[in-house]
Design brief:
Elements (H helix, E strand, L loop, with lengths): L4 H13 L2 H8 L3 H15 L14 H28 L5 E6 L1 H6 L1 H11 L4 E6 L2 H9 L5 E4 L8 E15 L3 H5 L14 E2 L11 H6 L3 E2 L3 H10 L4 E4 L10 E5 L6 E8 L7 H16 L7
Parallel strand pairs: 1-2, 1-3, 5-6
Antiparallel strand pairs: 3-9, 4-7, 4-8, 4-9
Helix pairs in contact: 1-2, 1-3, 1-4, 2-3
């Protein structure tokens, strides 16, 4: 006969209460069922665990076994709790790989709501470029990726939003005051700071402007730091600077039809941890009710 966790739980409960009837009440079983299971446990051990039939005093062997049994029961109950928590997304972890602009402007309210709903889930958020996001997903080092992502076989991809490109400069830059009378083709010799998103602008007239750039900065925070210092101007999508428009001017490129499109990508739902599935559900609901993107 194999020792079962129910035997250990029965034994520890009887030892704790010192009575078959009280232990039966605690376990939700009849006294006879508890007595039978306890007898099977003692037969497997090969010795009595209680000194009397009243079960109020343990034998020396019973005392030693009790400590081990309690430890095993506690471990089992903790394991069950973790498993049930994972299935309800109360526990576990969520690995997000996102572009910097998404990390700073789109995700904060999503993560705020998710953390309120599932406070025990550990979240690992890393910002990186879209190419690296796709690689992390392929290598299963991220559960969900958000960026300008192309189709990947076997991956689930959905569009989250798209936004227009614009010129970004300091608010005191002359361009910000004269933009109504200018266009991006006639903006003069302002130094351009290139970034990875510039490659998405396919307008042929933008190519020579990008070609004269002598500075390439992929990180949004570093890029805006250089613009703030007056090193140059740059071109970014509207939502990439949505939370810093009190400091920078965003000048729409009305004659550029290209828009930045951001996708959410993950493995199929059946392969995701419960926490990742719940995150996808939340962000989909926020997209549907309009609380994800307020102004694109």
């Amino acid at each position: 006969m194999v020792i079962k966790i129910d035997m250990l739980r029965c034994f520890t409960t009887v030892a704790t209460h010192g009575s078959l009837s009280e232990a039966a009440d605690a376990l939700g079983r009849t006294p006879s069922a508890v007595s039978m299971m306890l007898k099977q446990f003692e037969e497997h051990v090969g010795s009595a665990l209680f000194e009397t039939a009243r079960k109020s005093h343990l034998t020396p062997l019973g005392d030693l076994i009790l400590a081990e049994a309690r430890r095993e029961v506690a471990h089992f109950e903790k394991t069950v709790s973790v498993i049930e928590g994972l299935s309800r997304s109360e526990l576990g972890y969520l690995r997000l790989a996102v572009t910097p602009s998404v990390a700073t402007t789109i995700l904060p309210p999503v993560i705020f709501r998710f953390a309120q709903m599932y406070p025990k889930v550990q979240i690992d958020l890393r910002d990186m470029d879209s190419v690296t996001i796709a690689r992390e997903l392929d290598r299963e080092r991220a559960d969900i990726g958000i960026g300008s992502l192309t189709e990947v076989e076997g991956m689930r991809r959905t569009e989250l939003f798209s936004d227009a490109f614009g010129l970004v400069c300091r608010k005191d830059d002359p361009l910000a005051k004269e933009w109504d009378n200018l266009s991006w083709r006639t903006m003069g010799d302002h130094p351009i700071i290139a970034n990875g998103l510039c490659e998405q602008i396919t307008d042929p007239d933008f190519a020579p402007i990008l070609a004269r750039s002598r500075l390439m900065v992929p990180n949004t925070a570093s890029l805006l730091g250089l613009v703030r210092q007056g090193v140059g101007i740059t071109v970014l999508p509207r939502l990439a600077v949505a939370n810093v428009l009190d400091e920078f001017a965003f000048l729409p490129l009305a004659d550029v039809a290209t828009r930045r499109t951001v996708h959410l990508m993950s493995q199929p739902n059946t392969l995701l941890m419960p926490a990742a599935r719940e995150f996808l559900k939340l962000i989909t609901e926020m997209k549907r009710d309009g609380s994800l993107i307020m102004d694109a």
